[in-house]
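Quick one:
INPUT:
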């Protein structure tokens, strides 16, 4: 188990390093922050002073080493826009993002998994076809299109809900539904496929042949085995809690991390973008590690790797 955790942690640290490196290189090669942050008619002396103040005149490798050293000290940099610590700006937006993504996650799990299980247990029935039709529709419609349709119907036409902002809980209804529907559709499809595969396994036929009631065989054998691929999808959704609402936050003018990321990228606010990417990568890596541990709890065969195989 210790070797298993050690390998997973090493892989997690390598992933974080690659994410930071990718963000560092791409952002610095995509444009000059000094020309974007300062006005177009700023004197060359002011632009040169800005570059010197933020170390943009230094060689790229030197900026990279300095940034990595700062991360190890717990310093994620300062915003070039207002000079505040990047982690402070991001931390202010996290509660707003979680206010959308956590309820949406509950909708995804509470609606998608039961729908997928029900469709698999009633294969080729009208209910199965209806669930899959809705799942395909929810999966293929882009979130910004669904969000705009909901705004048109419930905010503009009916006037029941606000179209954007964060003034009250009512402002969160449409973005939460927008986020929840797409994820529920994905979970319903994966859960149905996993259940159908498990229901056709020999151990299910053996259990039924021994006289085990159908509902008991489903509860004891089918659901735990079908949960393994489903847990992978849920883990990805948990890992994307901070960055999974970029488009929806923009559509509904919701002041969360996703909208901050869009603004920071447009302004080449390097420290803010890198801070967000690092936090998102850390969340994803942590979620994947938890999923790996859950695999062993759901299937004891996965706890011990065969001889000669890597963990």
């Amino acid at each position: 188990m210790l070797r298993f955790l050690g390998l997973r942690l090493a892989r997690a640290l390598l992933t974080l390093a690659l994410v930071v490196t990718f963000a560092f290189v791409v952002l610095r090669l995509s444009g000059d922050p000094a020309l974007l942050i300062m006005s177009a008619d700023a004197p060359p002396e002011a632009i040169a002073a800005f570059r010197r103040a933020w170390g943009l005149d230094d060689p790229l490798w030197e900026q990279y080493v300095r940034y990595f050293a700062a991360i190890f000290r717990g310093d994620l940099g300062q915003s070039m826009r207002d000079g505040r610590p990047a982690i402070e700006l991001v931390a202010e937006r996290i509660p707003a993002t979680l206010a959308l993504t956590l309820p949406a996650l509950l909708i995804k799990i509470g609606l998608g998994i039961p729908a997928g299980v029900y469709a698999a247990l009633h294969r080729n029935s009208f209910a199965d076809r209806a669930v899959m039709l809705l799942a395909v529709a929810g999966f293929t419609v882009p979130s910004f299109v669904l969000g705009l349709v909901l705004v048109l119907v419930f905010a503009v036409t009916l006037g029941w809900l606000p179209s954007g902002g964060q003034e009250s809980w009512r402002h969160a209804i449409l973005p939460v539904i927008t986020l929840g529907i797409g994820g529920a559709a994905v979970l319903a499809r994966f859960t149905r496929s996993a259940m159908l595969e498990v229901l056709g396994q020999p151990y299910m036929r053996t259990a039924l042949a021994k006289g085990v009631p159908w509902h008991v065989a489903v509860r004891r054998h089918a659901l735990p085995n079908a949960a393994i691929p489903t847990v992978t999808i849920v883990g990805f959704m948990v890992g994307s809690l901070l960055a999974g609402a970029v488009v929806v936050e923009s559509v509904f003018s919701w002041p969360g991390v996703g909208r901050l990321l869009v603004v920071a990228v447009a302004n080449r606010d390097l420290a803010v973008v890198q801070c967000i990417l690092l936090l998102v990568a850390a969340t994803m890596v942590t979620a994947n590690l938890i999923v790996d541990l859950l695999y062993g709890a759901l299937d004891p065969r996965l706890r011990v790797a065969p001889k000669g195989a890597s963990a």
